[in-house]
Each structure stands twice: as structure tokens, then as C-alpha cells.
């Protein structure tokens, strides 16, 4: 049996490194994990006034998360934090109050950047936002992928062997974490 993991891409740019990394992870995943790469273009803005009659896109996103065995965030860093679209998706999924679609779901977080820091601030912000609305967060290994600008070919395929090794190591740890949390 493969565990279904909603893999949330924190960027909506067509050629985003986060999307390329999420797709690479899906290909590298062990047989025990099925990574469902999920982009956020279709999720409308959260507005508490609409909670009584939530939008269809909110309900679909929440249901996808609720049916999953875990969530893996793959995000860039924007202005020392997470992108607005990712925060919006978290707000949509964590509502209504007390009924977060992340509750009980084991969480993995991978930050990335073409620069030298690898999205450290974005990861740290997710680690601050998620407790209280999610399940346990994988603490080790941490994943801050730097220098990802030259890691993919023109077709979006991962070509940087050093990055492939880091992703494989993270996936192996994440698979063991998911297995332990879903017993």
C-alpha cells in the first residue's frame, strides 16, 4: 500500500523551482509514497465572511488534504517568508476554526532557492505557522535546497546529481516518518 501525500507547491510560477522539485520528488519517491503534486492557482482568497458557504475550490482542497496520509510542502522564500499564495492555502485549509484539514497529518517541509540560503526563513515560518493546525512535523533531516537554478534541464528534469542525493535522503526519512505516524 502506498501512502497518499499531498505535495503542496508554494509557488504558482509556471517554471517555478518548487514545482520542478516537487515533480522530481514524485519521480524519486519510494513505492510506499504516492506524491500528489498540488499547485495553488485555483484556490480563491480566504475570507472569513464566506465560511458559512465555502467556495467549491476551498472544499475540494480541504477534502484532498483530509483524504491524504500526510502533507509535504515545497516552497520558495519570498521576502524572508512564505509566498502569499501558500499562506492563503494554509488559511483556507485550516478553517473553520477547530476543523483544520491538516490536523493529524504528518508534515514535511522543503525550502528552496537559487540563492545561497535555500529558503531557510520560509521553512522557519512554516514551522511557526503549522503547530496547532497540523499533525507532527518532521524535524530531521531539514531540507534547505540552495543553488537550484542550474539543477534542471529545459524539460524540467532534475540533472544535478548532488541535489538528487539530498532529495532521496529526505524522501527516505519522510517515508519512515509517514509510516510511523500512520500506524
From TrEMBL:
One matching Pfam family: FMN_red
Entry GO MF terms: FMN binding; oxidoreductase activity
Organism: Bradyrhizobium pachyrhizi
Record's GO cellular component terms: cytosol
Protein name: ACP phosphodiesterase
Span of the signal peptide: none
NADPH-dependent FMN reductase-like domain: residues covered: 4-145
Amino acid at each position: 500500500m502506498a501512502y497518499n501525500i499531498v505535495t503542496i507547491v508554494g509557488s504558482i510560477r509556471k517554471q517555478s523551482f518548487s514545482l520542478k522539485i516537487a515533480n522530481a520528488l514524485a519521480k524519486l519517491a519510494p513505492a510506499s509514497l504516492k506524491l500528489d503534486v498540488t499547485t495553488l492557482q485555483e484556490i480563491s482568497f480566504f475570507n472569513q465572511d464566506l465560511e458559512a458557504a465555502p467556495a467549491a475550490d476551498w472544499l475540494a482542497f480541504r477534502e484532498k488534504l483530509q483524504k491524504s496520509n500526510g502533507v509535504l510542502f515545497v516552497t520558495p522564500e519570498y521576502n524572508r517568508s512564505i509566498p502569499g499564495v501558500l499562506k492563503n492555502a494554509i488559511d483556507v485549509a485550516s478553517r473553520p476554526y477547530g476543523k483544520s484539514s491538516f490536523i493529524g497529518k504528518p508534515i514535511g517541509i522543503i525550502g528552496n532557492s537559487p540563492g545561497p540560503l535555500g529558503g531557510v526563513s520560509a521553512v522557519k515560518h512554516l514551522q511557526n505557522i503549522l503547530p496547532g493546525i497540523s499533525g507532527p512535523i518532521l524535524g530531521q533531516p531539514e531540507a534547505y535546497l540552495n543553488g537550484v537554478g542550474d539543477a534542471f534541464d529545459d524539460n524540467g528534469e532534475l540533472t544535478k546529481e548532488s541535489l538528487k542525493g539530498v532529495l532521496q535522503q529526505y524522501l527516505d526519512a519522510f517515508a519512515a516518518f509517514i509510516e510511523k505516524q500512520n500506524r
